[in-house]
Predict the structure.
Amino acid sequence: MHGDTHTHTAFSADCKTNPEDNVRSAIAAGLSSLTFTEHYDFDAPDELHSFDFDVDAYFDTVNSLREKYAGQIRLFAGIEIGQQPHQYVAEATALKMAGRDFDHVIGSTHFIDRLDPYYGGFYKEKTKKQAYDRLLDELLANFKYGYDFDTLGHFDYVTRYGPYEDKTMYYRDHSDLLDELFKYLIREDKALEINTKSGTRVEPDPAILKRYRELGGFLITMGSDAHKPELVGLAFDRFTEYAKNFGFRYCFHYEKRVPVAEPI
Ligand SMILES: [Zn+2]
Ligand SMILES: [Zn+2]
């Protein structure tokens, strides 16, 4: 099975997992590689967590696990950067990454108008269409700040926590914004992530991935976004078949910021 490109450990402020437990879990699941992608969200409005980590200690940990598990699985050191539409956030994030040898950078949006959908307040006084449009608008706005990233993380983050009975994001309801998003990714050679955590919580609309492929998108990564070891590689069998149905031939992971194709 291809690699899991999106996982967290205790280097992420919202996670307690021992990194080695993720490695063991990935080996048990038969994954070819595992990418650690720890949270860095500069100026997060979350009062409980500071989404920052010690990059030196992180690389020491990944390097020692690489040695210990050489020949069993390939390990990559990534980061999930939180984007907000502010120049000072973009600059601080660039400084955090400067001179560091990350394999994979996921660009994500966790906070919109200083609210995290995780806590629910974001949805107040918004219809479902307004809430989902607001997230997609924000993703597009963040692209203008020059964040350096390889993969757009969980474009469907907003579907996870909404109060709506049917939480699915439908292509037909957001076609203009989704088209703009996909065209940007394709033009800029950035990958679209199939986030299996989002996908297992809320049934995805097949029309979305179909449209990305129609527009010429072929760079996809698959990430569990696991915050617990047992969730590494979550539902990969199902979502690999799903991707194949739309004509995707490869899932990608990143090594030294270069996409590497694995046939699916
Ligand atoms: Zn995220
Ligand atoms: Zn994540």
About this structure: The pocket of zinc ion (ligand 1) is lined by residues 80, 108, 110, 153-154 (CB under 6 Å). The chain has one domain: 4-263. The first strand starts at residue 4 and ends at 7. Residues 4-263 form a domain with the TIM Barrel fold (CATH 3.20.20.140).
